[in-house]
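Example 610, ligand 6-O-phosphono-alpha-D-glucopyranose.
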Amino acid sequence: MCGIVGYIGYRDAYPILVNGLKRLEYRGYDSAGIALLNKNLDVYKIKGKVNDLEEFVEGKKPVGTIGMGHTRWATHGVPNNINAHPHMSSSKNFALIHNGIIENYASLKKGLLARGYEFHSDTDTEVLVQLIDWIYTQNHVSSEEAVRLALQEVVGAYGIVVLCKNEPRQIIAARKGSPIVIGIGKDEYFVASDATPIIEFTKEVIYLNDDEVAILNDGEIVIKDIYNLGKTPHIETLEMELEALEKGGFEHFMLKEIFEQPRSIMDSIRGRIDPVSGQVKLGGLSQISEQLKNARRLIFIACGTSWHAGLVGEYLLEEFARIPVEVEYASEFRYRKPIIYSDDVVIAISQSGETADTLAAMKLAKESGATVIAICNVVGSSIPRNNDGGVYTHAGPEIGVASTKAFTAQVSVITLMALYIAQLKGSKIGNKREIVEGLMNIPRKVEKILEVNDKIIAIAETFKNATNFLYLGRGYNFPVALEGALKLKEISYIHAEGYPAAEMKHGPIALIDENMPVVFIATKDSTYEKVVSNIQEVVARKGRVIAIVTEGDHQIKDLAEFVIEIPDTADSLVPLLSVIPLQLLSYHIAVMRGCNVDQPRNLAKSVTVE
Ligand code: G6P
């Protein structure tokens, strides 16, 4: 949540900051602001999007070769001009931008109020900048020392950038819990909450670790911890390409990402499975192969769409590797006093690698002695850095807030993982050849589904004004029903529920009337006939059925108002195909309703607060 960008160098900082904020806007978009350091510390900030900030700044000519920018997702305080970042200290000596939550802000604020500080915003961030100011003034220390001493008093999470008026050629960044990456250019440095604003200038980056502070001066970088212990920076090279961050001719990032799935699925499986022998190789798991082989239980922990991928994983792992699996919401797991055995393997799934609840749940699992691994999309993010092993999905940057290609990449990787663990345990999979070949053919089949986009547009047109939707599926298609419903509500604000089809008669059936669209994911698998009966039950009550069926299905064609055919594949691979039409359906409905598809209200791509 919240995007952070900073620059120090020889170029005009303003365009770098504004373009950086546009790249980061998917992290939060309720207000935006920048600060430039020249002789003065000039702050411009406003409620709204980065475009609103640009309009606001127009004609004001912000100058400076040092500056920082922020795009906010509100935690403390409503989105308005005052609560927007940067926040300035009362003395106007310091400006600060922040991603995260200062948990002990109330007690810090009390102390500062007693010392005569006044507060203008409702944010926890303003408390931190005043605290830095107080330490600076009181103790006559350098700005860098004031920042470090203040951070020693902070409980909570932060990624911050600080500018001090009295240090006209310096920018300070620090991290605990919320990511900060530093780009190393020639005679210039960049700071950001992820690499997206940096990539067009340099590929050399340093990811700050928790409790580290970076002090950037012209041509010099110093990294130390908040207790003043020097650290040796580890420079990494980004593999991301700039094109991956552009819409590439599509109207929205979400649509581009849906259409990228043949490639992102292929990238996530390529080189990891031998098409002839069917042997799976996952380098990031080889060092824990014994723990995987002897695991008492696997526990997936995740949030949102990643949790749905975990549910598919439960079916896959139990079928292939015959190992008990639990799937947990990270936010529930971490506070539930869960029973965790040292021979459990806990698998965190996260696109962003920064989800606060998932990180905390991993920490708990680690402290309980379990082996902890991660499936993650963003290289260098926090989640893959805090575990015993892991596998990256290679979906490429996902910018649309509603996750699409990350989900299918996660399911592809979990499929490989299930095959790998089965291999380690010597479990026999009856139709292994069909699965291996089927997996290699998924990208081609996804391409085929994408060709029916026009048909899905017509269905969207029919149902764009619906107020409710029901999504029903069984077995491997139950998590897909949940994911389809989540996609729709996230971006079109239509209430939608996903349910196991057989559970319909225990509640949702009461909702069915001539106004209720019901999406059935009814592919030809072992429960097909039972799902057909559910469709009949809905039709009998005048519900309007849209069915995702296997190519060539005639039975459902006669029952449903609309059918979308998908190519046949092994049951265990169906989610990789059946989810695609649901992504497209929600996308088109949202566009037709005039919703901001890439930046749906109140949501953020990377949820770094709990
Ligand atoms: C947010 C995003 C979702 C995502 C979830 C988990 O809610 O909007 O798209 O599924 O976080 O994020 P993660 O990065 O951990 O997969």
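Summary: The first helix runs from residue 13 to 24.
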